[in-house]
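User: Could you check the structure of this?
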Amino acid sequence: MVISAGKAELIQIAAITVGSYLLVQIGKALIRRSIRKTYSDPSDDVTKVTGLKFLYNTLSFLIYTIACFAIIYSIPPFKDIGKTLFAGAGIFAAILGFASQQAFSNIIGGIFLVIFKPFRVGDLIKVGQLDEGYVEDITLRHTIIKDFENKRIVIPNSLISTETIHNSHIKDARVMNRIPFGISYDSNVDVAKKIIQEQAVQHPLFRDYRSNLDKELNHPAVDVRIINWADSSITLRAYIWTDSQEEGFLLKTDLFYSVKKAFEANKIEIPFPHRTLVYKNNEPKKED
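Assistant: Sure, the predicted structure tokens are below.
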């Protein structure tokens, strides 16, 4: 049986299309399996998950792009049309390149994020002045961050590449929490410092990261210092270690409550701004 050239080309197009689709599905299934295995095995580095998710998101784009070029160059009519378009497409290519500059910038930015790893999937980061959140996904075009209100922040990769990134989980997740407390000028500073230290040390999220030398020298587990003489208060700052920024936030909110109660029980006043108004008599003096 002889198959005409037109039918043969259609069969070839169908074969490439179906083959590329099956290849994408098989590749994604293998990547999903690797991701599940990585999440279930604590010994695997979290950077592996980041690379796998990025590969998962770019696999379709890469395979279908290759499939399109394969169809163009494997079928003579399409190949001739492609050569004609490429030969006379200088101006069109320039316009298209200018229009897609931002898109290519996002793609290059995404590749750089995966290569240089300023953050990974699951890291707590802050990009520029945006809200903090957990990295949920990295795609060719953008990065998805889940904030503390469970909202998703979608940031183009090109923007991330030019912004300062605050990563709370990279290398060392421990956090030195600097928590301010204000007391009145009439209050006993030594008693206030002792209360803050006792409440902090009793908190279950507090961590003592003093060195052996610090302990031998009797350095306090929680350092409390006067940092400012404000208009209406003396500002104390406590330096308290926790295992992560999330735990630091919980510790801070709990301390605001417990320290307030302890201050009230020990007659330590938490001041509010006072203003003294002086009225002057501006009436002119009577001449003799």
